[in-house]
Amino acid sequence: MKSRIPVILLACGSFNPTTNMHLRLFELARDHLHQTGRYQVIEGIMSPVNDNYGKKGLVSARHRIAMAKLALETSDWIRVDPWESEQETWTETVKVLRHHYNESLRVLQSKKEFMRNKHATERTTGDSLSCQQPVLPELKLLCGADFLQTFKTPNLWKEEHIKEIVEKFGLVCISRAGSDPSQYIKESELLAKFQHNIFLVKEWIQNEISATQIRSALCRGLSVKYLIPDSVISYIAHHNIYTEDSERKNEGDLLQPLKLHNTTINPLND
Amino acid sequence: DPDRKTEVVLLACGSFNPITNMHLRLFELAKDYFHETGKYKVIKGIISPVGDAYKKKGLISANHRVTMAKLATKNSDWVEVDDWESCQSEWLETLKVLRYHHQKLLSPDVTNSLPDAVPLTKLGRKRKQEPNRHHPIKKKNQSPDVKSVPQVKLLCGSDMLESFGIPNLWKLEDITEIVEKHGLVCISRAGNNVQKFIYESDILWRHKNNIHLVEEWITNDISSTKIRRALRRGQSIRYLVPDVVRAYIEKNNLYSPESEDRNAGVVLAPLQKHASDSKNQQALN
After folding, report:
1. Domain span at residue B231?
2. I need a labelling partner for B135 at 20 to 30 A (CA). Which of A147, A257, B164, B176 fits?
3. B213 touching A, CB under 8 A?
4. Region Disordered: start and end of each range (chain B) (predicted)?
5. Residue B76 domain-assigned (yes or no)
6. pLDDT at A155
7. A226 and B219: CB-CB below 8 Å?
8. CATH of the domain at B43
9. Whole-angstrom distance, CA of residue B40 vs CA of residue B42
């Protein structure tokens, strides 16, 4: 029997704040991959973006990480990773993918070492199976359909990065009923080439809880109960995170990737 | 007294099979809406799951549905579950449930049995204040403190409102009394047909001031049907229903292809009840 390929799902984003919809993406992606019969999702990682990203209304990573942790308290397979937010500056998504992939290999390696040492002392037949070469895990980027569309935004992505993401890693893209990202993929030569590595998952139970709407509701004193976890609501209230002031943060600024790529692509501009 | 707000109790009737985050959102949206008008104060929310005698396809035992709703509202400080409706041996018209809860608010010590749920007379009608008046005119048959009687309003989605048009599902006089004497709070998605539906019905139009339309901007289409479908297919329902509800469903293995087949081919109770009554051939429009 062919064993399933272990998969780690990585979601990058602002998570400003984490909503039930973000959490749903993981559940939908896992179900989908499991139902192909070829994969076994072993882990989910939420990676909140660095403060340096410069997005309007982005509150401190310290809070966004804390909220994600609270939101994931009841999950036994998804965790939040602060690495990206702890870097000196904003990091390209492909680099975050590379980091987590290398980390997973490192973990796998140390597990193998552990098992090897274990078998040196205890020889039981049951353990002989785990001495077999474990299948290397694959790390896939989990996202919504709108994320896919951003590949088109000028200067937001480097072409070679997009290629590495879809070729070496893979995408699991959740879209709502009514939208059709497959059309978009067909129209892009690059994406079409690697479409076998782009998993499209349709979300039939519409649940479009945008973080922007959540922040807006909070600023207006409206309820967001049952849209984001209760523990996150308490945290937000306790620390008074989202206010009119917080919404104005980075107002008028260019997103960091746009700033970076603008200079490299147009070196002659003053 | 312009500062005195009218107290409102929101009553949601339905299958709650199972209860979902969307059901719970209805209460939050309605409460925010009323508070923003500055004229109302929502003091309580009541979830009243329908009795098994409703005979809807896929409807599982009321015991489970009530338990799940209670689990879901455990940490709510204003929404509660009432099992009176679900305990009745026969299916009850929604209006009767409204009357029951209204009576209960008027006289909380009296436990009402089914025959006592009498139609409201003028007691429940909100008194319109003339601009310069400070005191409502007191009538002999009115309770002394008219303003302090909370109103019980039916909380629903646009599907329930539009179901008023389904032949034999509702009695015309029930619809009339619901909108005239109690009121409706209808939550619907942006881009819905509810306003048009109200416009096309003389009865609803006449009482449109007592039909509060609340627009739900955050699309949240978590229907119980979809939850049951996901469960049958072994798919995750996490973050769509409260975690305690998910755990309860899992532990008791509540939803399956077999449970979905319950009442298959059986006529829905209200349809059965009204079909024979020729008076009910009146149309809503």
Report:
1. 6-107+149-284
2. B176
3. no
4. 121-144
5. yes
6. 86
7. no
8. 3.40.50.620
9. 6
Helix pair angle (A61-71, A230-239), 10° resolution? 150
Q: How many domains does chain B contain in total? A: 1
A–B: how many Cβ contacts below 8 A?
A: 66
Determine the length of chain A: 270
Domains along chain A with CATH numbers: 5-114+134-265 (3.40.50.620)
Tell me how crowded residue A264 is: count the other CB atoms within 10 A of its CB: 9
Residues 6+ apart with CB under 8 A from A68: A15, A18, A46, A48, A80
Predicted interface score ipTM higher than 0.90? no
Higher-scoring residue by pLDDT: B277, B6: B6
Is B238's CB within 8 Å of A210's CB? no
Nearest alpha carbon to residue B85 among B95, B71, B75, B77: B95
Residue B114 domain-assigned?
Answer: no
* Proportion of chain A above pLDDT 70, given as a percent: 91
**Å from B25 to nearest chain A CA?**
6
In the numeric block, the tokens 């709510």 are attached to B76
Tokens of A157: 């992505």
Residues in chain A with CB shorter than 8 Å from the CB of B22 are 226
Measured CA to CA in angstroms, residue B14 lies from A161, B62, B153, B159 at distances of: 51, 11, 14, 11
The answer to whether A206 contacts B220, with C-beta atoms less than 8 Å apart, is yes
SS3 state of residue B38: coil
Look at residue B95 and tell me if it is in a domain: yes
Structure tokens at A79: 């965790």
Question: For residue B115, is it within any domain?
Answer: no
pLDDT digit string, tens, across residues B142-182? 444 445 689 999 999 999 999 999 988 999 999 999 999 99
Q: Does A206 touch chain B (CB under 8 A)?
A: yes
pLDDT band, very low/low/confident/very high, at A126 (cuts 50, 70, 90): low
* B77–A contact, CB cutoff 8 A: no
Q: Are B264 and B56 in contact (CB under 8 A)?
A: no
Enter the tokens of residue A114. Answer: 């552990």
Whether the pLDDT of residue B127 is over 50: the answer is no
User: B217 and chain A: CB distance < 8 Å anywhere?
Assistant: yes
How far apart are alpha carbons A171 and A161 in whole angstroms? 13
Q: How close B139 comes to chain A (CA, Å)?
A: 39
Of A7, A22, A36, A9, which is closest to residue A144 (Cα–Cα)? A22
- Residue in chain A closest to B35 (alpha carbons) equals A222
Q: Alpha-carbon distance B273 to B171, whole Å?
A: 10
Is pLDDT of A90 > 90?
Answer: yes
Q: Does B223 touch chain A (CB under 8 A)?
A: yes
